[in-house]
């Protein structure tokens, strides 16, 4: 029994989701993990267990350790290393262990590049921080390990409505838009980005307007002249714990045109919309359908009845999504926006919004919403109205600063903001019959719209509130390095197919001059651009004009492939700097080179010489 206890380890963990923190006790069975109870791995897990009693460990971090352990336990050599006693392991063995793990992660078809990097880093961190913390001969300097995972490129962020769902393409993907030239493509992509975002905005406005229309009808009913006898009948009825057939007959005897108004007036008279109250409903859905007609899906009867007093859940979620479309913030930043972060100019009546970024403990950039932006302005007004109403009704304290409260399961005051508005948007998309989307895609879309013209990457950086332009580049990587290039590649592939000549085993003629994008120039002295640049050797700035210069030769051998790959790597690492340095030159001259280079790379990769490209690329990567 004691031995079994020795093999079980409990770790108190936490994780955060949708603005809340959750605690959980994870139980680890060393035997099932393939870990010896006297090994350095077991010692490390026990140290985490003891530490978690006062400061819970990240569940994500523990998950990484467990999953890495399973992978290593499946390898015969690695299994022996993870089961060594702490004093027996050497820096060389630990370095070999890290290599085995990284190799396994690189080969694994599961998980994204980000997750693989997190696995690799977390396990190395665990080894030094917990497993071998007391071994003075083991440290990062003595092990000297450089991870192979770092070269993995993260997947691009997805745009809205750009991936076929259920074998249905909802619109022409941004990566396959037909076009006449580069500027035409940029304009078409920008139009698509705006149109797809507008679909979500329109859906939000549909919900908000539906709620307002129902609210108007409820208020109209509340003010409708109603005989007091009917109101008294409802007042007796709604406060009962149980009702009789007499109560039902009394209710049914009220004329239909007075039933809803009687109900609403009675609820107001008894203050039954307040917190800590409850009331009886009877045939409410039928009454609302008969009286209001055409109630949109998703609006619960109880919430409809209270619309003159407060906002409903659908309305609050629509406001949340609409403001994401306007601000481009992370959903957590908007969720963390508090009452004091919204200011209203009493003269011009515009709103100034600011959110909170919990990851960096920083505030988002200010967002100004002019009163002429009526849809967004009205949404903020409705959010503030709901907050003040919930204070009046006793659901939140007068000092409460948080904003995102909506209906919960009971009548008690709220202690936490609602989670549902942050959760999966599938029901929202399904209700409106639009494409599925995530909140992260909205942020990516808004940023890409801000920078799609490539006039200023700084506009997106300011919008996102990033301190580093490299962080912004990861968002824009989706449109620049994937969507623009993908669409252009489709055009170039057709043109290149008849122009490329492979000549792998021979050196190229000295009369052919490398252009720097994988192609060659057959005559830089006699060129068709003398009217533009004057006499002298061609500057190699117009090689891609139109269908390409007549002197351009696409003759491929191993040297050209190496040049192609190095050029591709250079553009991938430096495009942001090139763009910032001279945006007009980037648009006119650099972008066509990037596109041509990418198209040529993809063409060779898909050809019979793709294996040669792979070998050369691996050799170049290992040089770095």
Strand-helix topology:
Layout: H1 2-7, E1 8-17, E2 20-29, H2 30-33, H3 40-51, E3 57-58, H4 59-73, H5 76-82, H6 91-107, H7 113-131, H8 140-143, H9 182-222, H10 228-238, H11 245-252, H12 256-269, H13 284-291, H14 301-305, H15 313-327, H16 331-335, E4 342-344, E5 351-353, E6 356-357, E7 362-363, E8 367-369, H17 374-392, H18 426-432, H19 439-451, H20 457-464, H21 469-496, E9 500-502, E10 513-514, E11 520-521, H22 530-533, E12 552-556, H23 558-581, H24 583-606, H25 610-623
Parallel strand pairs: 1-3, 9-12
Antiparallel strand pairs: 1-2, 4-5, 5-8, 6-7, 10-11, 11-12
Helix pairs in contact: 3-7, 4-7, 6-7, 9-15, 9-19, 9-21, 10-12, 12-13, 15-17, 15-19, 19-20, 19-21, 20-21, 21-24, 23-24, 23-25
What share of the residues does DSSP label as strand, in percent?
5-15%
SS class? alpha+beta
Quote the distance from N terminus to C terminus: 54 Å
Average pLDDT for all residues: 83
What is the topology, as strand order, of the major beta sheet?
9-12-11-10
Number of helical runs?
Answer: 25
- Taking Cα atoms only, what radius of gyration do you get, to the nearest Å? 32 Å
Q: How many domains comprise the coordinates?
A: 4
Percent in helix: 40-55%
Residue runs with pLDDT of under 50 for 5 or more positions: 1-5, 454-458, 466-481
State the shape.
flat
Using DSSP, what is the number of strands?
A: 12
Largest sheet: 4 strands, mixed
Oligomer: single chain
